[in-house]
Amino acid sequence: MLELFVQRLRDYAETQPNHHALADESITLTYSQLWERVQQLTATIRQAPYQRIALDMENSVNWVVYDLAIVLSERVCIPIPPFFTPQQRLDVLRDCGADVVISANGKMQPLSQTTSAELPTGTAKITYTSGSTGIPKGVCLSAANMLKTVFALAERIGHVNTKRHLVLMPLAVLLENVAGVYLSLWLGHEVVLTSPENLGITGSSSLDLSSFSVALKRYKAQSLILTPALLAAIVHNVENNQLDATDFKLFAVGGARLPEPLEQRAYALQLPLLQGYGLSEFGSVVTFNSPINPAPGTVGKPLAHAKVEIKENEVWVSGNCMLGYLNQPQTWYPEALPTGDLGQFDACGNLQLLGRKKNTIVTAYGRNVDPEWLEGLIALEPEISQVVVLGDEQLPLTALLVPHQDGMDAAKLIERINRDLPDYAKIHQFKLLSTPFTVANEQLTGTGRLRRDVIRAHYEPILFVNAMPHEVIL
Question: Dihedral, CA atoms, 199, 202, 203, 209, nearest 10 degrees?
């Protein structure tokens, strides 16, 4: 499969040599120039003694060129997520046994390793995710793992008339790396890269709506990979005539549960929204909606390389499983994987996600409540910046709210939300917070997921203060 990808890049260098392949603030490469640079760098890497190469750079043309050259030279590429803390960076470099790290200036800094990390045969990339515990875990993938995903996505959406993809997520996030960059290059499109600051994005939880809108227009983005929060920003700007829906060709949405009201607003604006679903352990994408006949409320049908089964309400996947976790031989070469997600198929074979298995709240009355459902509804309120819903048999459903600004009438907001909720899912109390959930305070993962156990432990002293609606400023 790697040979097919290499041949495709070589063909583009000959058939569309002057077509832009990659562009950032300082460099633009045509397909001819990209092919030449990748060839040169691949030869250099093959002559070097390094087998495991860590990539510690911000999004840029050079990031992509190094990544391609490392994979094509059949070395192991280890992208370091820019949202990792300094300690997590050190942990990753020790954990993976990297021989060298490439920094932003392109210099290779050799590393001395005292231990040899175990990885399965055929590993081309170790992608790290902080998950819900904050402890980096290395997912080992082959080139075939990643390219099977690319080919399957091309089969599903390759005919969509888009020519320019704007990268929004860090390239160390496998979804953007594979479904954003690799897929775009396979299709002969242009990939545009810029800094989070130019996009109006700060960390994993802050977004300047105006700057974001300006960036999308400036870079003439046609295709984007979006989290629900970023989609909400675009919907808001289109509704307020800051963006034109017809400028966009494809929105691939994933990473977290998409609230149904937000999805409905996006479709009402005729935004090209397609939900998908995946996980790093499966090469990033498992299911994806069809552009021809999307099924709202679902994440689409399995891609050609994926088999999806429901076992005791949990989603299991097979067909393109990871090689295994780094340093965990007992996980190597799995035939099928439990995802931890609850789901079901609709009558047409589209997958519907019903929440995370471990996140389900069981109330004092024995009812199961998906907190992501409630959080999605609350997060649609313009006054809310962030929200987490907690609860169990002892704790009534409680919303921790981070407002955009002081002075919000949270009681009225919760009352409004509760009107449309069934009795068992109504919010019983809320707490207003002045400190947001961030990666720095370890209450968010690097990709913006809530670390519920950490949040609950931190706010435990105030959760049982009052069983009635109650407001606390911290």
Answer: -70
